[in-house]
Amino acid sequence: MAKTDFRDARWYAVRRATNTKPSTYRCPLCGRLLPALSEHVLVVPEGDSSRRRHAHTQCVLQARKAGRLPLREEVEPRPPSLLSRLVRRVQRRGE
Known about the structure:
Layout (H helix, E strand, L loop, with lengths): L11 E5 L7 E3 L6 E3 L4 E6 L7 E4 H9 L6 H4 L6 H13 L1
Antiparallel strand pairs: 1-4, 2-3, 4-5
């Protein structure tokens, strides 16, 4: 599968970044530099860790508010849990 651009993803996973490596990254949302030891988040397009990027927390919040960074749960709702499937099956049998 060919890698696609970071912004081409249908959904993103976002989590707090914990990095002790003294590196500098470039935020994919604003293009500015981002020191690794500063408070920031990790953004993973469609769960593909090879495409993950470090981003400013504020940039991610702004992109989320503008609707440009949808989360997986917003795009692909979770499948029904085992319990809900069992309840539905029992209800169907009672009809």
